[in-house]
Every structure is written in C-alpha cells, then in structure tokens.
Amino acid sequence: MSSVSRTGLRVLKWRYIDNFAPWLAYRFDRPPLSGEADRVLSELDRNGIAITTAQALLGPNSLYTELTAAVDSLQRVLAERVAAARAAAKNPESHKSYILNLLGDRPRLDPQSIYVRFALQRPVLQIANAYFGMYTRLRFYNVWHTFATSTPPQDSQLWHRDPEDYYILKMFVYLSDVGEDAGPVTYAAGSHLKVGLPREPSYIKRRGDAKRTEDSQMAKVLPSEQWIQVTGPKGTIIFADTRGFHKGGLARERDRVMYLCMFTSQAANCADYFERPSSIDIPLEKEQAFALALR
User: Fold this and answer.
1) How far apart are CA 92 and CA 206, in angstroms?
2) Which residue in 32, 124, 267, 274 has its CB near the most CB atoms, within 10 A?
3) DSSP string covering 250-268, please?
4) Which of 188, 187, 189, 184 shows the shortest CA–CA distance to 174?
5) What does the alpha-carbon distance between residue 26 and residue 285 come to, in Å, rounded to a whole number?
6) pTM of the full predicted structure?
7) What is the biggest distance separating any 2 CA atoms in the chain, rounded to whole angstroms?
8) Cα torsion angle, 88, 93, 99, 105, sign
9) pLDDT of 77-127, one tens digit each?
C-alpha cells in the first residue's frame, strides 16, 4: 500500500472514528458561511493559507480595538522584561530567545479575557469549524513580541510543519506593521494535507530531533514562486493550516508584535498549551462551548 493510501486511511479514521461525535454534530448543525468568511475559507482550502483584515472579516465593532489596547497596556507593564529579552535575543544559544510570550509560557485560561474572547468570535470559529468539517478545540493563544536580530535563522524561522494534528489551524493577527524586515509569516502554498506535497524536502537538524528545512531545500520541492510571504499593516489577519510548511519571525530591522491562537480537532495529539483552572464558566453558545470544553 502506498504512503498516500496509508495517509488517506489514517485521515478517514481520524475524521470518522476518532472525531466522530464532533463531526456528526457539526454535519447536522453546520451554519452557512457568507461574505468575507466564505472567501477566506475557499482560499484556505485551496492554498492552506488565507489573508484578510480585522476590518474586512470582523467589522468595525469587533474586538480588535480592545485587543490592541490590552496589548499596548501589557507592553507598558512589561517594559523592563521586554528590554531584557531584547538584549538576550543577541545570544544565539538561547532557545527561541527572539520571541517573548507576553502572556507567559502557559497563560491561565479565562473565558472573559480578551485573548480568549478574540479567538472565540463567531467568524473565526465558523472558519475553523468549516475548514475541519467538525467542531474544533481552542488549544493555544498568546501574544508574541519578536525581536530583530542578526543571528542565523533557527527554530521556527526555518521551514517546518507543526505536529499536533492532521489539520492545524492558526490565526495570526499583526499588532504592528510587518514588512520584509520584521519577520513576516511565510507559507508554502499547497503543502497542507488537503493538497499535500508530492515528496518531503530534506531536513537539517536543529535541537535534537526537531525537523527544520532551509530555503534551498524547500525550493527543490516547492519553488519560491509558490511561497506566500505575508507583509501588511497592523490589523492584518492570517489563517494558516500549519500542518503545511511555514516559517516566520526572522526580523532583521524591526520588531514584530502578533496575537495568535490555534485550533485542532478533539483527537489531536497534544494537551492544551494553557493552564486550565479546575472550573471555568463555559459559554452557552455551542461553538464556543465546544472550543473550550475538556476532551
């Protein structure tokens, strides 16, 4: 049996056995998408990545203004820590030293927090659930401050796939203007599982068994003409299936500030990347309730 056939059988098992309940529930209660959300979903299905803006997708009365105000306030509170982390970013031996998690490595889950509420907005969840074809779980959220450095590319600055699930949907929201000099998100269009690479690129090894790929290696499988580098002003929103090849954060001249969150299936091979209190107030809305529920 070919590797393609084996992958297809694994995906069928993942969808119709491992995730049967969320798939069935969504099939009989699937809301229609329209307008910008429908366009984003079509682009995401086709390329593995879709680009929009807070204004276009969420409208003028969205939570984007509240999010930016909260992050601006957080940056002021953490000014000394940010300055120290920026200095440490010059050390090439520090793992991920070019990124500071402004919410900490494992933020405490609070459904009333703007950082959770932003991820659970209806257009966002509708896109996530429609892309998976099932109700999805929120697994991760944070705000990254990425520092400009001159060190060689490392870790997520190199091409890689995320390992947690067959589909993995991340939403990236630029909270600062991001040009080529500020570490834009870059994606190899068509490398997600819905399309799939004809073959994998060769790898360089970084930090144990973590697989990372350089530009020259990726170009042998997918030419650079198929790479989508997302530059844009603050308010740019990116949806990407990070099971496909991607990279970002190679900031050379300017820092990058970015909110991000991640959705997976119920059966994903990962725990939540946040601290879950012993009890939380689960929202009444079905999509939001499922996104925050325990396995």
Assistant:
1) 13
2) 124
3) -BSSS-EEEEEEEEE-TT-
4) 184
5) 14
6) 0.94
7) 57
8) negative
9) 999 999 999 988 877 666 558 999 999 999 999 999 999 999 999 999 999
Residue 121: both structure tokens together: 């907005």
For residue 282, give the amino acid letter: I
Question: What's the alpha-carbon Rg for the chain, to the nearest Å?
Answer: 19
Q: How many residues does the chain have?
A: 295
| Residues with Cβ within 8 Å of residue 10, at least 6 apart in sequence | 166
Q: In 4-13, which positions are buried (b, 16+ CB within 10 angstroms) versus exposed (e)?
A: eeeeeeeeee
Provide the 8-state DSSP code for 224: G
- Going by their DSSP bridges, the two strands 211-212 and 169-174 should be labelled as unpaired
d(CA 146, CA 148): 7
Are 175 and 247 in contact by the 8 Å Cβ rule? The answer is no
Alpha-carbon distance of 193 to 229, in angstroms, equals: 20
Sequence-distant (≥ 6) Cβ neighbours of residue 183 within 8 angstroms: 146, 148, 157, 248, 249, 250, 251, 252, 256
Neighbours of 204 (CB within 10 A): 12
pLDDT tens per residue across span 21-63 = 999 999 998 989 999 999 999 999 999 999 999 999 999 888 9
